[in-house]
Amino acid sequence: MNAVPAAEIHLGGLGFGRGAHLLVQRALAGLPPGGRLAVSGRDPALPVHLPAWCRSRGHRVEWPDPADRSELVAVVVRGTADDDRWFGAERAGPALPTALSSRPPPRWGLGARGALLEAGGPEARFDLDERDLVWADVAPKLYAQAAARQWDPESEVPWDDAFTLPADVEAAVVQVMTYLVENEQAALVVPARFVGRIHPHFREVTQLLAVQMADEARHMEVFSRRALLRGAELGTSSAGGRQSLFTLVAESDFALASFLLSVLGEGSFVDLLSFLERNAPDPVTRRICWLAMQDERRHVVFGMAHLEHQATVDPRLRDRLRAAIHRRHDALIDTAGLNADVFDALVVLAAGSWRPDDVSAGFQRVQELQHAMDQGRQRRLVRLGFRPDEAAELSALHTRNFM
Amino acid sequence: MPAPTVLMGAVAYDPKVVTIWEGFRAWLRGNGLDFDFVLYSHYERQVEDLVAGRIDAAWNSPLAWLRAERLAAASGSAVHALTMRDTDRDLTSVVVVRADSPVRQVEDLAGLVVAVGAVDSPQATLIPLGHLAAAGVPVDVRRFDVGVGLHGDHIGGERDAARALIAKEVDAACMIDANHLAFVQEGTLPPEGTRIVAQTARYDHCNMTVRDPASAGVRLFGTLLRGMSYADSQVRPLLDLEGLTAWEDSRTSGYDALARAVDASGFYAADGRVTAAGYRP
């Protein structure tokens, strides 16, 4: 014992087997390296455990005088390892998304935004790491809304309501549901391909896309369940329809995928779901289309917001969007587009009967739906900065498969 | 001028040994030492190769250090301890009984069954048994030979001894102080379930043993090891894996208890030959 200890701690009967190290650690934290802490206690194993613990933490131990009859076990001289570990540590940006980094470094990796990061560790490769590329200021708010509006397919849909449909109307519903399921499948896979590439610094976008995927998962569930509610077989899936969806999934550019899926595809889908809700022949179909429509609206809002932001900072964005529409149109030019069975089923649902006048009216409504979809696409294209005449031209090139 | 070189031996007692020394190798090479390592499956061959001049340095257990000293002396040469970890200094071993044991003091262990680690474990076998023998306490030894040849680096023998104690298969168990703490914290031993009835004097553990401390390579090796900083994020994970916060100058004053135990048990002959009965690394 060569100096007066600067600090003291009494552990009472607490041993290292029950957390005594926390008290010692806390007391040492208040001392500078080289600072001395006299540790007293009554746990019989303390004289064995305290030095062993200190050794592993880089602290030195001074032994008491053998004649010392107090409960003093040892004096711990604080080492530098605790401080050294945090040499070169940095905050992973601000905790709140108010002043996000324009390009967070790979070394921040999976560290929580705002956390104090120990230096070292892996350089995580998240290639979608530019704020202008992925961020939209509305993302945190949209995520909160999305999280608050998650619904339970079991309790939110009147699965047990009694209804009976003529066989061919039921078949039309099954056909439309079959088509919806494959579209929702694509809408789940597209964001899934990007979630793992977005730098966690932009976590609200990742969270939003994760909820969006959960939305699509529910949509797949309820549309499948409605399709099989009265029978055991699904409808048809056309090669052209699947080809159209595949071009969505194959798009590897986040902005372009977001544009094709959310702005054009899901935007049109909102109109389709609205049409189905109005023309649904049964309460289950009506309810699930309404629920899905609420979710899809949110997806469109985020897609629009992030592209509108990007358009303000990247003057060439519109050229890329234009090219993407042309590229997809060219890729699909030899395909039939919308499954004819789906189109016919929509007419049947809108007609509600087989009387020629009703069929004619149903046909008219489906044409109005297509017109509404076209008008919606044009409006969104104009908001992204396209001239109205060009917006009309580009909207016309959109896939006939709606999504 | 070519970079100074060092070829070091290390015993592969765990897969992490590869991670540790590959990492250190990259760091040492980046600092001007042409360093490489070879892995051994046990310490005996590593020590023989060091003394035979096939390697320049050996990351040695305390038992391997003693044998290297003896083999070198027998061949008219000498080995030297270059560095050691801060965690290699002032260790103790303990003899532990169950909390409800009638054993109150070390003398009460006479004639009882005491569990130890592997035959070649300094901390869980040789030193604590030497301590009991020096206290004049004859015991019935039950050995847990896990990782024989690794000189106790493998924790398995000590853990099995601790488990045997809790299972009431033995009356007492020997282990290093840090492992008693670790076993209590991980739950192998219940927090108040054991009582320490004996603690050895402080001793030292591993060291970096070298043949030629004056060679440029070995001198640079020592300087670089001592210069490794826990504040350096490149080496810190490796230091954590190897269980140290700093390399320090080696000292050889902490091996007397082990040397006495080795002689008393006839583990090695004075000329370094392996004479322990039933020891087949």
Please render the helix and strand layout as text.
The complex is a heterodimer of chains A (403) and B (281).
Chain A: E1 7-10, H1 20-29, E2 36-40, H2 46-57, E3 60-62, E4 72-77, H3 81-85, E5 90-91, E6 116-117, H4 131-134, H5 139-148, H6 153-156, H7 167-195, H8 203-227, H9 239-250, H10 254-279, H11 283-313, H12 317-332, H13 340-351, H14 356-383, H15 388-396
Parallel strand pairs in A: 1-2
Antiparallel strand pairs in A: 2-4, 3-4, 5-6
Helix pairs in contact in A: 5-8, 7-8, 7-9, 7-10, 7-13, 8-11, 10-11, 10-12, 10-14, 13-14, 14-15
Chain B: E1 5-11, H1 16-30, E2 34-40, H2 43-51, E3 57-60, H3 62-74, E4 80-81, E5 83-85, E6 93-98, E7 113-116, H4 122-134, E8 140-143, H5 156-166, E9 172-176, H6 177-186, E10 194-199, E11 207-210, H7 216-227, H8 236-242, E12 247-249, H9 256-265
Parallel strand pairs in B: 1-2, 1-3, 7-8, 7-9
Antiparallel strand pairs in B: 3-11, 4-11, 5-12, 6-9, 6-10
Pfam families (chain B): Phosphonate-bd
Organism (chain B): Micromonospora acroterricola
Protein name (chain B): ABC-type phosphate/phosphonate transport system, substrate-binding protein
Describe this structure in words.
The complex is a heterodimer of chains A (403) and B (281). With 403 residues, chain A is mainly alpha-helical. Chain A has three domains: 7-84, 2-Layer Sandwich (Translation Initiation Factor IF3); 87-125, no CATH class; 131-396, Ribonucleotide Reductase, subunit A (Orthogonal Bundle). Helix content of chain A is 58%, strand content 5%. The termini of chain A are far apart. With 281 residues, chain B is of the alpha/beta class. In chain B, the strands form three sheets. A five-stranded mixed sheet of chain B has the order 2-1-3-11-4, with helices on both faces. In chain B, strands 8-7-9-6-10 form a five-stranded mixed sheet, with helices on both faces. Chain B has a two-stranded antiparallel ribbon with strand order 5-12. At the A-B interface, helix 2 and helix 3 of A face helix 6 and strand 10 of B. Chain B: Pfam families: Phosphonate-bd. Chain B: It comes from Micromonospora acroterricola.
